[in-house]
Amino acid sequence: MKLKVKVVWLIALSLLLTIALMFALLYVVMSVFFPGYNHVKLQNMSEELAGRLRQTDLRDASRLAQEMAAFSGHHEGVGIDLFSGDGSLLHSSTERGEPVTLPEMMERLANPFHRMFYGEDLSMVYELDAGGEKLYAVFHVEGDAIQQMQFFLVYNNESAISLFFVPLLLIIALPALLAFVFIMWMTRRLDRLNHAMQRIDLTGEPVFLADKNRDEIGQLTNHYNEMIAKLHDQYRHIRRVEQARAELISRLSHDLRTPLAIIQGYAETLQRGSAFDTDTRIRHASIILQKTDYMNDLLHKLFSLARLDDPSQAFRKREGHLDSMLQTIMADYVLILNDKGIQWEMELPSSPVAATFNHEGLTQVIRNLLDNAIMHGGDGNYLGIRLRREGDAVRIDVEDRGKGIPAHKLANIFDPFYRVNEGRPGDGLGVGLTLAEAVVRQHGGRIEVASTPHERTVFSVIIPAGADAAAAHESVSGHHPGR
What we know:
Layout: H1 3-33, H2 39-54, H3 61-73, E1 78-84, E2 89-92, H4 102-109, H5 112-118, E3 122-130, E4 133-141, H6 151-156, H7 158-198, H8 216-272, H9 278-308, E5 318-321, H10 322-339, E6 343-347, E7 354-357, H11 359-377, E8 382-390, E9 393-400, H12 432-442, E10 446-452, E11 456-464, H13 467-476
Parallel strand pairs: 6-8
Antiparallel strand pairs: 1-2, 1-4, 3-4, 5-7, 8-9, 9-11, 10-11
Helix pairs in contact: 1-7, 8-9, 9-12, 10-11, 11-12
């Protein structure tokens, strides 16, 4: 059963139960808190009197007087006149001796409801069947003995019932109707949310709902929109990871197949003894070592990238001097740059630049940037590296003047397994810059890149120096010999 149907039944049952309880409560209140005679009690008294008179000889005046006295003793405040069928007076508790005239009778019986409502002295006549003889009993009720609120008069009077029910229905039905409309509006919003959740399809476009209300359903709708956005983002991320994994396997197999084939070929040549002279054997061994180093470098980068994503691997930073680290790194590249005819320069501040960093990770970042500058920008025959402090941060620039990076590819160069030159083999797996960005991000910094093809390409590593490093810089500033 749907919620709206349950609401309709609940409202209908509550209305019926309210009306029933109201009438029951009204009857109990009138009976307990408003004692006195009403027309129902007088009717019951007439039936009781008829039962007594059936067992009494009406011709025996003394016996009749005793029965009537006993009956009157149980009903105080009510006078009784008993008449025969022809109108003759048989008994009067008011000790009346004269017959009742018609005008007097009409006056006493006129406007009974009016007298009963306003608490005036009231006379009611009832027809009695006393053993086949028709009698008439006139009950004279004092105004003080009449019940102040006449529930049964209202209940038995059709016009009064209609007047009574109209305000009752307005009081009960109008709030119920408003509640029903409100709940229908709420269920309609819940139905929209339910249908939207049933239509969730991560392979298609996300379905968002518009609900400007700030109530609980509006908040739930906003949470649904946020959930849908996150699910689609996570799904797209998973798809990209799966595609990248498939691409990784393809590239890894492709990039490793060539050096493995070369290693295998030269190793077989050495095994067969085809290379007799020493120079040939040395050249073959050098090629094997070169390709082995290339494969080892690829695997090392993959393992480093996987280790960065492993929360169990601690990332420790310590204080150090970046200028000393850069000098050590560049010492390994001097011969390579000279052999390739690449002019290089390094600009360092006159005083040491202290910072808090992970030495191994940041060293790998700078080496990756230098390798890329030599590999992809070596045709510009220039490489520059600069270090400077910028407030509470330090900046390391690696510049080349080669072919550069097209503007439309700058946004993707840090994506895993992305290579600017897709068709060139031997350029690695495209994880070097991804690894570099991840390490810098762990330092709380960022990598910026600016490239004008065939003019200037600069990769900038910006990391916070740290409070301790900044203090150390202030303490040693001006005390380091110039370079």
